[in-house]
Amino acid sequence: MPAFLFEGNPIEAEDGETVLSALLRGEFDVENRCRVGACQACLLRSNDPVPRTAQSGLHESLVEQGAFLSCQAKASEVQSAERLGQEWAPRFEATVSSLVWATPDVILVEFDVPDWIAAPGRFVHLRHESGVSRPYSLAAPAWGPSSTVRFHVRYIAGGEMSELLAGTKP
């Protein structure tokens, strides 16, 4: 059976199991959502080598810090892991500049984000001051001094983030 350390705790994994699956089976509270590597919610880090395939799509600054997608890393290929922590990710203050209902269940939300250079397709975690957080993929950046980025947000009645965004005034 493969084994690795998670924040000093020995974890035994099943053959072929991912780091994330082993941690969830062990009832560790590890943030996760899609479990296919797209949302990047399950990021962990290691001081030891990790499989490059578990770093696919990550910004180079995260790779340099040993970050990896725990849903993509086989437990047999990781020696140790720990939570990444919010201090590892850059944070930017944003202001809603436009909110348009494209369809009854899709909101086009534009944010002004000073001093940020965005790239389409990159995942970001929108964090509301209330603590609600959700990952979204950038739909379109506007290059230049305006630093405007756009998200297509599927409105889900009762969904914490979509309800917050739907009620926001630019």
Major sheet: size, sense and barrel closure?
5 strands, mixed
Radius of gyration: 18 Å
Helix content: 10-25%
How far the N terminus sits from the C terminus, by CA atoms, comes to 54 Å
What is the H/E string? EEHEHEEEEEEEEH
pLDDT < 50 stretches = none
Summed over residues and divided by their number, the pLDDT gives a mean of 88
Number of helical regions? 3
Descriptive account of the structure:
- There is one protein chain.
- The chain is mainly beta.
- 11% of the residues lie in helices and 32% in strands.
- The strands form three sheets. Strands 2-1-5-3-4 form a five-stranded mixed β-sheet.
- A hairpin with a 5-residue loop joins β10 and β11 (148-154).
- It is elongated, with a radius of gyration of 18 Å.
Kindly list the characteristics that best describe this protein.
170 residues; elongated; five-stranded mixed β-sheet; mainly beta; 11% helix; four-stranded antiparallel β-sheet
Task: Briefly summarize what is shown.
The chain has helices spanning 19-25, 60-64, 160-166, and strands spanning 3-6, 9-12, 43-45, 67-69, 80-83, 95-103, 106-112, 123-127, 133-137, 140-142, 148-154. It is mainly β and 170 residues long. It is elongated.
Topology record:
Elements: E1 3-6, E2 9-12, H1 19-25, E3 43-45, H2 60-64, E4 67-69, E5 80-83, E6 95-103, E7 106-112, E8 123-127, E9 133-137, E10 140-142, E11 148-154, H3 160-166
Parallel strand pairs: 1-5
Antiparallel strand pairs: 1-2, 3-4, 3-5, 6-7, 7-11, 8-9, 10-11
